[in-house]
Amino acid sequence: MSSLRLNTTQLPNKHLRNMKSDFLFHLEIPLNDPEILAKFQNVKFVCVGGTANRMQKLALHLAQEIKFETTGDVSFEYSFENERYSGFKVGPIFCVSHGIGTSSLSVMLHEVFKLLEQAKACDVTLIRIGTCGGIGITPGTVVISTGSVTVGFEEFYNTSCLGKLLRLPTTADPELVNDIYSCRSESDNFQVITGKTYCSEDFYQGQGRMDGSFCDYEKADKDDFLKQLYDIGVRNMEMESAGVLAMALRVGIKGKSARVGSCG
């Protein structure tokens, strides 16, 4: 699980102040519609995950948990679905799909952050929820990420700006980590742990898998890679945590990533 809290609604982009109108192209949401913006002013939690179906089910589940009252046949206060992303809002919770990897994730987050700013939302917590590959843990364990490790075993998200390398820190908010960890219950039929997350740029070679279309290493190399990760406190791997934490920190949101380990 990756998450962050947004304490200010002003994004660090001075050029946005001079734009007369804006349209969130990939989310297909116009920012000049006061009625739509009013619906998002009360957002306190943004939950993101890979697929539209998963986010829709999560929104429906959370609606029941917070006793969100629907109107007629409408299940959500606001929703959108297109070829790229889907979003579902219930009360103060906005669930959005992001696809696979940090590239797809970053596009969605840029536009969600702009939406929250225009809607004047504040004190927002960002949480990514999804599956992962576990490292030395029991299958089904929920891992609450304390930070994201990338290539070179460093806690930085490597991206670019105008053709130059941009390295952004990927540390999770410790208070939020503790808040989420404290929600565990003795009656849960699964384990909940904290640990670092390895964020790869690829599903196959990037994660040490040996069933891709090509593989340049042996099983012993893979095992050594996983041991190195375990020894520095990594307990799971996936493809989005670094982007979630880095972008949330960049705009002043407390962020966290929580995932269910799919293998030991």
**What is the end-to-end distance?**
17 Å
Q: Please state the overall shape, judged from the principal axes of the Cα atoms.
A: globular
Domain tally: 1
CATH class: Alpha Beta
According to CATH, the homologous superfamily is: Nucleoside phosphorylase domain
List the quaternary state of the chains. single chain
Helix-strand category: alpha/beta
Biggest sheet character: 10 strands, mixed
Strand content: 25-35%
Poorly predicted regions: 258-264
The CATH architecture comes to 3-Layer(aba) Sandwich
- The whole-number mean of residue pLDDT values reads 90
Q: How many extended strands?
A: 14
- Strand/helix succession: EEEHEHEEEHEEEEHEHEHE
**Which percent range fits the helix content?**
25-40%
The name CATH uses for the topology is: Rossmann fold
Give the radius of gyration.
19 Å
Number of helices: 6
Verbal overview:
- Helix content is 27%, strand content 30%.
- It has a single domain (2-261), classed as Rossmann fold.
- Strand 2 (23-24) and strand 3 (29-30) form a beta hairpin.
- Strands 1, 4, 5, 6, 7, 8, 9, 12, 13 and 14 form a 10-stranded mixed sheet that branches. It has a two-stranded antiparallel ribbon with strand order 2-3.
- It has helices at 34-40, 52-65, 101-118, 174-181, 219-231, 241-251; strands spanning 2-6, 23-24, 29-30, 45-49, 78-81, 86-90, 93-97, 124-134, 142-149, 156-161, 164-169, 192-199, 234-238, 254-261.
- By secondary structure, it is α/β, with parallel strands linked by helices.
- The longest helix has 18 residues, at 101-118.
- Mean pLDDT is 90; it is low at 258-264.
